[in-house]
């Protein structure tokens, strides 16, 4: 069997007294788009944020179980959160570019890892913007503030900003929920064609069906069902999944 | 109402056959786009506006009165201040006016001599010296405190430090002046072996105590107003807490932070009692921080009681007041401009 990019083993997670995840085990495979769906509060976003240790900032957060990134424990004693966040990129629900130029947004990560030379940064920035399919739109506006772009372009700047560190995997937390349909379509097109490992949390089941190879359905903190997207949507094994995808709740 | 509502219908029938009405309405482009061969149709319209109850109209009037009163006060103060000040420069009762050149460029302030001299340069230098020195101290101190409160301190620590800083702002300036006279002055005099401890340094230290809470409090507001999501973005790119503070939070708050410093500076510039008590009162241009100075504010406070109303000394003090007013206004405008310019970045 191929080694997964991320392997979660019996993950329990608490916010203070509240248990948000119960015994979640799943493998995320290379070069696949994995969608996480489920009703609000089901734990899908919580699980996503565990993959790059963004829950470290939540007071009273506790974790049991194990999450491996290419075989190395993300929460082990020798794990370095800074290194993990560089290998596991993230795009957030609302576009959150820095109030800086497009160029400085893209170069933020590379500069943190010590790339200082303008020539090198130029190469990195162009590569990242091309990878985010944004280069042709913004190549003449690199000095412009990212805040002046449209919401959809801002979100793609955020994608490019994450890609500039060449992460192994990209996490996307409802990346289109603040975007209009046209901008959403562009982001979805990008996800389909990116050819990289992506984990995307979405409220929108049609979106999961459109863009993902595998889908994980979370319900009440448990991973209710996980499988190839086609199977999960056409012949779900669980009644809970069926009820959710047919719109009976959620 | 009924008549208004009926109008569009009526006018439409004049130019179009009733049968076509529905379709044209459904695809209605702006009225000027008329079918070929027909003149553009002016469609009647109704302007929409909220309906106000008498209570709403009444409260609107009340707030209007408040606004007009505030502006009126401002206007009256300006008219009074500049009107009296103008007398000094225009001259009266056969006496020649003081030239602007003498007022701004002469450091001779001898208002009670005969003939008197009304040079404001030394007083201006006095004000600027204590203001600049205290801002150089209170700026970094206040901003550091702001970063500590907004980004570093845990909730527990903040609960103690923040009220303490606010309490510092609430200390009456006369009390701080007493501290300056009774504690700081002898200390400076003995330790540094100076002729007097009442000098620029002393005044700057006391003004720093007064301005620091202003800078810290406004600076903290500016830093906490930075959206959390861009800080998350920074962490998600592998930045540490310090990298996030220095490269994201502080730059994003720069407008508010510079406003905080400028308003702290304004606080120092306008402060009267402290400088009256501890700056020493000598009207000459300071050559070092150990010289005594006589800022504009303390000159006004000390001399106003000794002047004859309408006299030249009286007018000269108004001219100093006007100068102070213009400087304060300029700094406030600058603060306002900075906060606006940087805010538009986000």
Characterize the structure shown.
The complex is a heterodimer of chains A (250) and B (346). By secondary structure, chain A is of the alpha/beta class. In chain A, helix 3 packs parallel to helix 6 (151-163). Chain A has a domain at 6-96 and 169-245: P-loop containing nucleotide triphosphate hydrolases (Rossmann fold), CATH 3.40.50. Chain A has helices at 44-50, 81-87, 102-112, 118-131, 135-138, 151-163, 181-194, 205-211, 229-234, 239-245; strands at residues 6-15, 18-28, 33-37, 61-69, 72-73, 88-91, 169-173, 197-201, 214-219, 222-228. Chain A has ten helices and ten strands. In chain A, the strands form two sheets. In chain A, strands 6-7-8-3-9-10 form a six-stranded mixed β-sheet, sandwiched between helices. A four-stranded antiparallel β-sheet of chain A has the order 2-1-4-5, with helices on one face. With 346 residues, chain B is mainly alpha-helical. Chain B has two domains: 55-110, no CATH class; 122-344, MetI-like (MetI-like fold, Orthogonal Bundle), CATH 1.10.3720.10. In chain B, 69% of the residues lie in helices and 1% in strands. Chain B has a two-stranded antiparallel ribbon with strand order 1-2. In chain B, strand 1 and strand 2 form a beta hairpin. In chain B, helix 5 runs parallel beside helix 8, helix 5 (121-152) crosses helix 11 (254-270) and helix 8 (200-224) packs antiparallel against helix 11 (254-270). The longest helix of chain B has 37 residues, at 54-90. At the A-B interface, helix 2, helix 3 and helix 6 of A face helix 9 and helix 10 of B.
